[in-house]
Design brief:
Blueprint (H helix, E strand, L loop, with lengths): L7 H35 L7 H28 L14 H27 L7 H23 L8 H40 L21 H34 L21 H24 L4 H35 L10 H30 L10 H24 L7 H4 L16 H6 L25 H55 L4 H4 L2 H6 L1 H32 L1
Helix pairs in contact: 1-2, 1-5, 2-4, 2-5, 3-4, 3-6, 4-6, 5-6, 7-8, 7-13, 8-10, 8-13, 9-10, 9-16, 10-16, 13-16
């Protein structure tokens, strides 16, 4: 029996907390069931085929579609109601990014439909239904996120919690499916490359899920099959971004927000020319390195070793620049005295947790490479470049995480209007200063008669003093004091502007560098696969399992860091 003397707010929080716990457990079980089904298909478990996995994913997408349509219809009928919004969630640049990835995902779905048509004689109908359902799911989900990512739901909270968490884990399962499919393709190519590096003791058994029939049009089949794997990185990023935005929406359900004005921080190219130029140079050189790497790797032992050496040297140079830029930014922060914003913010908290959590994937791979170099008995020349590369990966992420997390937690600087205002002080008695004619015209010549302009009435300069000596002292000292204050304020403002300009250039440079470092692993340039030394020390299958588990987090880290640095650039 409930106590009648209990606080209503405390009593009402229990159902909300229970709904949060129940919905999270529902989502986790949903995800684990799908994850086990995905794993069973990957290892060719008896009785589990790809059609079973796709049927499960189709069912989840259809349930999410029904919930989103219900939510959209209900919101349409209540569009006149004023709803609370989380101004930090669903930034416009984030919506534009997820829209771009969604468009490329739709191209991927169209390729899958074409691939199914060409192999329709030996493929399950679910492989044709899946891309169609996924395309519809993508269109409606992007529209939903554009319109309602900022919502703070206050009605039907229990039902909405289950609907949103279902959407979160549906996208995570679709992300897992994409990662696994793309990883299996990369693994097959990797096994073929190892032969050219002289690792003949590794058994080459290709894991082939290709259709067991001939294609109706060979040219189109080749285009579709190759194009699908080049588009998977964008599909993977789309689903992980969607899941993070939906997770913030889930955390905001029933939340009480403080109504305060949110300063808009648009992105401006002004003042970041240096950072953009250096970043574009890194981006261009990275694309060139990736192209050469993919062409040369696997051709012969000499070309493969040269490709790996080229990759390591380029990456070492870029990572060293990023470390120096991050250190400079942190030193600037140490010289400033600005308080941190510790208010409750689910979006900001999730950003910080994702940065540290996904960085662990790269750190795992780097420590594995360092241990392999130390323990290996034979060291080909190119493998020594892997040591500084792996160490810099650990250090760079450590420094960059500190910079980003502190940046998103720093309060925005308030502009002091006194710095922008030039105060003109006139002294009517015993003054050697004279007004210009234009100034006299403004005040109709009253300055010449000793009258104080109305602009200064009510201020400290327009007040009358009882004592003549006190008035004279005030008049003599005020211009000097005011001038000194303005000069000091101007100097502080100049120093602050210089620091902000440096920080904006650093954020712009790191933004483009993270985009550059996202490209190689996303498009198949993975020395962790092709180096070969780790496979000898740890064994082929154990190391491949580690790489396949850690690499998706490493790829996501770079894209998430780029998004966070874009926000830092806007705030600075």
């Amino acid at each position: 029996m409930e106590k009648s003397g209990g606080s209503p707010s405390v009593g009402s929080s229990y159902p909300q907390k229970n709904a949060e716990i129940l919905s999270s457990q529902y989502g986790i079980n949903l995800f684990l069931a799908g994850l086990l089904l995905t794993f069973a298909w990957a290892v060719h478990a008896v009785g589990i085929s790809k059609s079973h996995l796709l049927s499960y994913l189709i069912t989840l997408m259809l349930i999410q579609l029904l919930w989103m349509l219900w939510y959209l219809c209900r919101s349409c009928t209540q569009r006149r109601l004023i709803r609370d919004k989380d101004t930090h969630a669903g930034a416009r640049w984030l919506k534009c990014g997820i829209t771009l990835f969604a468009v490329i995902t739709l191209v991927l779905d169209s390729f899958k439909i074409g691939y199914y048509i060409d192999f329709s004689n030996c493929l399950s109908p679910t492989e044709g239904i899946f891309p169609v359902t996924h395309a519809v799911h993508t269109i409606i989900q992007v529209y939903f996120l554009w319109c309602h990512a900022k919502d703070i739901i206050q009605s039907f909270k229990t039902l909405e919690r289950f609907g949103v968490i279902h959407s979160v884990f549906t996208n995570l399962l679709l992300w897992t499916n994409g990662v696994l499919t793309e990883s299996k393709h990369q693994l097959n190519e990797h096994k073929e490359r190892l032969i050219t590096l002289g690792f003949g003791n590794i058994t080459i058994v290709l894991d082939d899920h290709a259709p067991q029939c001939n294609c109706t049009t060979t040219t189109l089949c080749s285009i579709f099959s190759q194009g699908i794997y080049y588009l998977y990185p964008f599909n993977i990023e789309y689903h992980i971004l969607a899941s993070t935005m939906l997770y913030v929406l889930w955390k905001n359900i029933g939340r009480k927000v403080e109504h305060h004005q949110q300063h808009k921080t648009p992105f401006k190219f002004h003042g970041i020319t240096v950072g953009m130029i250096f970043g574009l140079v890194v981006l261009t050189s990275t694309i060139a390195v990736v192209v050469v790497y993919l062409i040369q790797i696997g051709r012969s032992k000499v070309k493969s070793e040269l490709a790996l050496t080229m990759f390591y040297l380029h990456a070492i140079f870029v990572l060293a620049l990023m470390c120096m830029a991050g250190i400079v930014a942190l030193l600037i922060y140490r010289l400033e005295e600005r308080s941190l914003d510790n208010s409750k913010n689910p979006a900001r908290k999730l950003d910080a947790e994702l940065l540290v959590g996904t960085a662990a994937g790269s750190w795992l791979l780097s420590w594995g490479s360092i241990l392999a170099i130390i323990c290996a008995q034979a060291h080909p020349k190119y493998t020594w470049y892997n040591l500084p590369y792996s160490m810099l990966v650990i250090i760079e992420k450590y420094i960059q995480n500190l910079f980003i997390i502190e940046s998103i937690h720093r309060e925005q600087e308030k502009v002091n209007n006194d710095i922008k205002t030039l105060r003109i002080v006139t002294i009517s008695r015993g003054s050697t200063l004279s007004l210009t004619p234009s100034y006299k015209e403004i005040y109709n010549g009253r300055a010449g008669s000793g009258a104080v302009p109305c602009l200064f009435k009510g201020s400290i300069w327009g007040r009358e003093s009882d004592g003549a000596a006190k008035e004279e002292t005030s008049q003599d000292m005020s211009p000097v004091t005011n001038s000194a204050t303005n000069v000091s304020s101007y100097r502080r403002n100049s120093v602050t502007k210089s620091k902000r300009r440096i920080l904006k250039n650093i954020a712009a440079f790191l933004f483009l560098c993270n985009l550059s470092l996202w490209i190689p692993p996303a498009f198949g340039c993975r020395p962790e696969y092709d180096n070969g030394l780790e496979e000898i020390v740890f064994g082929f299958e154990p190391w491949i399992i580690v790489v396949n588990l850690a690499m998706p987090f490493s790829i996501f880290y770079r894209m998430h860091s780029a998004a966070s640095l874009f926000e830092v650039n806007c705030k600075t």
